[in-house]
Amino acid sequence: MRPTILIYILVMALTTYLVRMIPFTAFRKKITSRFARSFFHYIPYAVLAAMTFPAILYSTGSLLSATVGLAVAMVLAYFGRSLIVVSLAASFVAFLVGFLPFG
């Protein structure tokens, strides 16, 4: 293994360790602020949405089929369908729209 790869791995390990350990050392008491607690509660959802949304739009070869699939997923999720139903229906609709002459 080249020494530069080992250095990269060590830097990433240190970065990961620091990101996980800084909150434990900085916040020793329970956070009582209602705003801060709600802020920390929604961070995972915001990060997941920020990572997933661009991938949805570029997952197919066509922006139209991806957008239609996204719309179907949002409508089904709004009406409380299960995750498997939402994902399968959105994928299937995006697949079908991809076969259209303008899709």
Total beta strands: 0
Radius of gyration: 21 Å
Quickly give the structural class. Answer: mainly alpha
Helix content: over 70%
Overall form: flat
**Main beta sheet, described?**
none
Question: How many domain modules?
Answer: 1
Uncertain residue ranges? none
Strand content: under 5%
* Ends apart, CA distance between termini: 47 Å
Order of helices and strands: HHHH
- Enumerate how many helices there are, as a single number: 4
List the topology elements.
Blueprint: H1 3-26, H2 34-57, H3 63-78, H4 83-99
Helix pairs in contact: 3-4
Describe the protein.
With 103 residues, this protein is mainly α. 79% of the residues lie in helices and 0% in strands. It has one domain. Helix 3 runs antiparallel to helix 4. The relative contact order is 0.08. The mean pLDDT is 90.
Structural descriptors:
103 residues; mainly alpha; 0% strand
In short:
This protein is mainly α and 103 residues long.
